[in-house]
Design brief:
CATH superfamily of the largest domain: NAD(P)-binding Rossmann-like Domain
Order of helices and strands: HHHEHEHEHEH
Number of strands: 4
CATH class of the largest domain: Alpha Beta
Number of domains: 2
Number of helices: 7
Shape: rod-shaped
CATH topology of the largest domain: Rossmann fold
Mean pLDDT: 83
Distance between the termini: 74 Å
Strand content: 5-15%
Oligomer: single chain
Helix content: 55-70%
CATH architecture of the largest domain: 3-Layer(aba) Sandwich
Radius of gyration: 29 Å
Structural class: alpha/beta
Length: 168
């Protein structure tokens, strides 16, 4: 609108010059550009680049904040697991493991759920469960869940060989 009012350009020429100004493509200055239109172009460049910079900073800040929150949540969980004793570890992959973990928590007993499916893990986390994302067949994951201090281990993975591997 500014270029249309300040020059004798058509609507499309005004739109096109606004577009190449904001995107900083800069094909060069048209010969019919007036001083008023130059001031407007300067304002448009500052406003466009400033808006883009602000939008990028908001997006980056959101991503960094989510990463920090996620990292702090993992750190809190690991500290909590180090202090946990006489708890149950449930290796979950389906509705049976979910039902067992619910039964344990309904009895006010401590429970750590190990899940390797990130989507399922989010569901457990949203419900307030202690969830570790990882493969229960990995000995390090079981150690991090406090296997040495646990009261019991429940293997409810869909595969019998994996269940046997976990308990051995």
């Amino acid at each position: 609108m500014g270029f249309k009012l300040l020059t004798d350009w058509s609507w499309f020429d005004s739109f096109f010059f606004t577009l190449i100004t904001i995107t900083t493509i800069g094909y060069g200055e048209p010969p019919t550009l007036t001083n008023e239109a130059r001031y407007f172009a300067t304002f448009l460049i500052i406003l466009g680049v400033g808006t883009l910079g602000y939008a990028l900073s908001v997006v980056i800040q959101s991503v960094v904040s989510l990463e920090i929150i996620s990292s702090l949540g993992k750190r809190r969980l690991m500290k909590e697991l180090k202090d946990l004793e006489n708890h149950y570890i449930v290796c979950v992959a389906g509705r049976v493991g979910r039902r067992i973990s619910q039964e344990i928590t309904d009895r006010n007993l401590d429970c750590v759920i190990i899940e390797n499916d990130e989507h399922k893990a989010e569901t457990f986390t949203d419900q307030g469960d202690r969830i570790m994302l990882g493969d229960a067949t990995n000995e390090e994951v079981l150690k991090n869940a406090g296997l040495e201090r646990a009261r019991g281990l429940v293997c409810a993975v869909n595969s019998d060989p994996e269940n046997l591997y976990i308990v051995s």
